[in-house]
Design goal:
The chain contains 13 helices and 21 strands. The protein has 396 residues and is of the alpha+beta class. The strands form five sheets. Strands 1, 2, 7, 8, 9, 10 and 20 form a seven-stranded mixed β-sheet that branches. A seven-stranded antiparallel β-sheet has the order 17-16-13-14-15-12-18. Strand 1, helix 1 and strand 2 form a beta-alpha-beta unit. Helix 1 packs parallel to helix 5 and helix 10 packs across helix 11. The radius of gyration is 25 Å and the shape is elongated. Bound molecules: flavin-adenine dinucleotide. The site of flavin-adenine dinucleotide has 38 residues, from helix 1, helix 2 and helix 13. The site of flavin-adenine dinucleotide (FAD) has 38 residues, from helix 1, helix 2 and helix 13.
């Protein structure tokens, strides 16, 4: 029987951060990961540059059935503390936009930093290892079995992440552990994920694939302004990914294609100033020629060769509302295959917001994405991983 003070299941962002925090306190820590490598999502993140945090972190950047749950951990370990760690390791970084911080070189810098901190604290890491059985011991602690090997620990930390991108090692193991110990699970779905379409919109997306435009999108009271990217299957880009976390199947989403304009005022103004121009030529500078032609084929095929002066104000009003409130009904999303995160997860009502310890099972901790806390795009998910990992790491 091998004994550790702490066993962490999952060597991703949250698990490694918890391990190094506990290790610094002198706790003996084992990290067990089923993948052949730890931190795979860190390596893949931010297009290989790892958007490791954001300069502007607020609880409003997180979705959870309990919006207050994340506050304590985010305050206890904030973005400035992580930035300080990054600077102490001499990792060059830059702000891209919206306060998003990326490595100048590669996301490997962040993973190497975490591994160096773990090594310094004598954290033991086992990859390609799967825990088969977990049993709570009456006098405290847990017995685990791993490929015939017996393990024992006082504190067990579940940091196995969400379901997104199974090829990067994602599994539902954390949810199974939660069920074993009677914790509540909220129905999960893919978040920060591209939308797909099966109707006429798919054709528009296909023929404009690769085009990126600055729009405002909204659904269910959430509103984001960033770039939208047309793909062969639908829409992606930061604005679509952000909105996907708020969308429910069957709902329409609204796209303001002219976010800096009052669309009707613009068209009426053009009617005065450019009476002989065609609508497509007036709109193309905002939306590109190709996309304007797609819209024209759908919304004003009868006015293709009509100068704007000959289009009635009532028709212009209708067209303006199609431009400022383009209503689309996604057929779905690309799902966990490409999603950056899993929405919902383990109900935070069962977890202490201060320590991440399970309220009904002393010594059992849940951190990171496996919990019902999901950040916006922009470094918020990693900050949650660091902060929740730190919170647990201080108590395990
Ligand atoms: C492509 C991509 C890009 C992203 N980019 C960013 C970004 O730039 N900024 C940002 O803030 N967020 C980003 N995210 C989200 C971020 O990666 C996650 O929110 C974060 O990694 C969650 O940390 P975690 O430790 O909870 O889970 P993970 O990092 O997913 O780690 C979970 C670990 O548990 C292991 N595991 C799973 N099942 C088992 C098991 N049964 N036994 C043992 N180990 C197991 C996995 O192998 C993995 O190593 C991105 C996500 C993806 C998919």
């Amino acid at each position: 029987m091998k004994e550790f003070d702490v066993i962490v299941i999952g060597g991703g962002a949250a698990g490694l951060f918890c391990a190094l925090t506990a290790g610094r306190r002198g706790r003996s820590v084992l990290v067990v990961d089923s993948s052949n490598k730890v931190g795979k999502k860190i390596l893949m993140s931010g297009g290989g540059g790892c958007n490791f945090t954001n300069l502007d972190i607020t609880p409003e950047n997180y979705l959870s059935s309990n919006p207050y749950f994340c506050i304590s951990a985010l305050n206890r370990y904030n973005q400035w503390q992580f930035i300080d760690l990054v600077e102490r390791h001499g990792i060059p970084y830059h702000e891209k936009s919206h306060g998003e911080l990326f490595c100048d070189n590669s996301s490997k810098d962040i993973l190497n930093m975490l591994l160096a901190e773990c090594a310094e604290s004598n954290v033991v890491i086992r990859t390609k290892s799967v825990i088969n059985k977990i049993r709570a011991v009456e006098r405290g602690g847990f017995n685990l079995s791993m490929a015939g090997q017996k393990l024992r620990c006082q504190s067990l930390v579940v940091a196995s992440g969400g379901l997104s991108i199974p090829t990067l090692g994602a599994s539902g193991f954390g949810y199974e552990i939660a069920e074993q110990f009677g914790l509540g699970l909220l129905p999960r779905s893919a978040g920060l994920v591209p939308f797909t379409f099966s109707d006429w919109v798919k054709e528009i997306c296909e023929s404009n694939s690769g085009l990126s435009i600055d729009v405002e999108m909204s659904v269910n009271g959430a509103r984001f302004r960033e770039n939208l990217l047309f793909t062969h299957r639908g829409i992606s880009g930061p604005v679509a990914l952000q909105l996907s976390s708020y969308w429910r199947p069957g709902q329409f989403i609204s796209v303001n294609l002219l976010p800096d304009q009052d669309a009707l005022a613009l068209l009426l103004e053009y009617k005065q100033s450019n009476p002989k121009s065609f609508l497509r030529n007036l709109i193309a500078p905002f939306l590109s020629k190709g996309f304007t032609q797609s819209l024209q084929a759908r919304y004003w095929p009868q006015y293709i060769e009509t100068p704007i002066a000959e289009i009635s104000n009532v028709t212009l009003e209708k067209l303006a509302s199609q431009l400022s409130d383009w209503k689309l009904k996604p057929s779905g999303t690309e799902g966990y295959r490409t999603a950056e995160v899993t929405l919902c997860g383990i109900n935070t009502d069962d977890i202490s917001s201060k320590t991440m310890e399970c309220k009904t099972q002393p010594g059992l901790y849940f951190i990171g994405e496996v919990l019902d806390v999901t950040g916006h795009l922009g470094g918020y998910n990693f900050q949650w991983a660091w902060a929740s990992g730190y919170a647990a790491g201080c108590y395990v």
